[in-house]
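To the team - iron/sulfur cluster complex, inputs and output below.
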Amino acid sequence: MEDILNELPQRAKDTYKENKKFFGKLRKKPPKNLDTLMVELHEAEFERTDCLTCANCCKTTGPLFTNKDIERIAKHFKMKPQKFVESYLKVDEENDHVLQRVPCTFLGADNFCSIYDVRPKACREFPHTDRKKFQQISNLTLKNVAICPAAFNIVEEMKRRIK
Ligand code: SF4
Ligand code: SF4
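Output:
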């Protein structure tokens, strides 16, 4: 996995133009079965990819925390939400609550998430490759393929399957 992660930013750079063109076309004319196809590609890829050998999303980016996330996780720690925010989060340029630092404080050395059951919604959904109307998050996906090897593979498979 280490080699794959080391090579990923360059591979994402090399495929950027092609991916941008592909998503431009996809947005204009998404295939009727896109939602079903994405679930199929997502499930097949995550059968092969073990996130516990990777954790690159937790190490390099981290999620944004919604108010609901903050309330749920603070409750888990028996903390007041404000205290949780002060201890672990900051507000970014877009006014979202994000981690004060990466790798994520809640990531263990074994790549396990110590708050897995109450983790933020964005962590549960990353890399969003099984979401409906996937064509609507193409700009985000263009970035995610440089972070997430599974997202990279899914986009490569999409290009093979959607002509
Ligand atoms: S979601 Fe992607 S980046 Fe995150 S651990 Fe799994 S494969 Fe790695
Ligand atoms: S909360 Fe858990 S899943 Fe989310 S970034 Fe931190 S370690 Fe990863």
